[in-house]
Amino acid sequence: MTLTALGMLSFDELVYKALLQGTESDVSGLCVALDRNDEDIRASLRRLAKQGMIRLDKHGEPTALDPDESVGRLLEQRLKRLHAEQQEVLSFGYSLISRPLAWRSPGALQGNDKGVCDRAEEFTAQARREVLTMQPNWTLTPQTILATRRAGVACLRRGVTVKALIHKRALEDEATSTLLTEMIRHGAQVRLLDGGFERVLIVDRETALVQAERGSSPSTTLVEQGALVDTLLSFFDRCWSQALDAAALLSPGNGPAPLNEMQLKVLQAMARADKDEVAARELGISVRTYRGRVAELLKHLHAATRFQAALRAKEKGLI
Predict the structure, then answer these.
(1) How many CB atoms lie within 10 A of CB 180?
(2) How far is CA 292 from the centre of its chain?
């Protein structure tokens, strides 16, 4: 993989690699080696300095920083931008939905959570081919869990495809995690999504229920118009393509194997340190290596977040 995948310009990558190789370490040498003028080289160096890849002295001469740490920072910046882009997609996608719903409200259903769950369960019972659902709540109410289990399992037993988009932080709730694990065991497809989105239920790609805030209380709207349903489907499919598969994180079994010595040290450092840089320094490894070890640890513990990994480790008496 080239660094352009992390947002670096291709010419800047050439400059950076030349500095890392040590063949050319000043502006004049880079001009000769890369056959570019002084202005182009200095502009590239300023961009690299802004990205945290190099340091410039008072004369504008460059020094390459530790590649493990600098590339790790570049990766983190890229991930933040991707997250921001995902949030923008979610916000824009729902704006496309909410505007026509506000203009043409085919059937608003007011009611408490029990009423909405009852309506959704009745709606789901009519499914013949497919049920798509988006659940933004981090913690599901007992009523929602009961209705979801009853309706979801019934659909799966009838051979209906069930796809659920759940907020990533919902895995921090034990009752919700248990429900999702059970649904996956019965054949449901579950993916995890970050950011804000609305509660949506789509049956057979023809009819939908959308719950959104309307003033002081949520309103659930029945959508049957083809154009609006198509908009919801496009929104769901786009979110689905960007979401994380929950099966590996929630798959039942005998639990993860015991942690090795390094995994245990990473876990303890992660629990103590507020910043990755502090934890990496404590372990005597680069920030990039530390973050890679954290990712391996989360996978080992079947955890979606560091918070969830810490909870599971605490339950097992590891920290």
Answers:
(1) 27
(2) 17
| Mean pLDDT of all residues belonging to the chain | 78
- C-alpha triplet 206, 211, 214: angle, nearest 5°: 130
What would the two tokens of residue 133 be? 């659902």
Task: Report the alpha-carbon distance of residue 143 to residue 148 in Å, rounded.
Answer: 8
When computed from its CA atoms, the radius of gyration of the chain, rounded to whole angstroms, is 25
pLDDT tens digits for 265-282?
888 888 788 788 888 888
> What domains are defined for the chain?
8-65 (1.10.10.10), 85-250 (3.30.870.10), 261-315 (1.10.10.10)
> Phi/psi at 175 (nearest 5 deg)?
-65, -40
- Give per-residue pLDDT as tens, 180-203: 888 888 888 988 887 767 788 888
**Higher-scoring residue by pLDDT: 85, 39:** 39
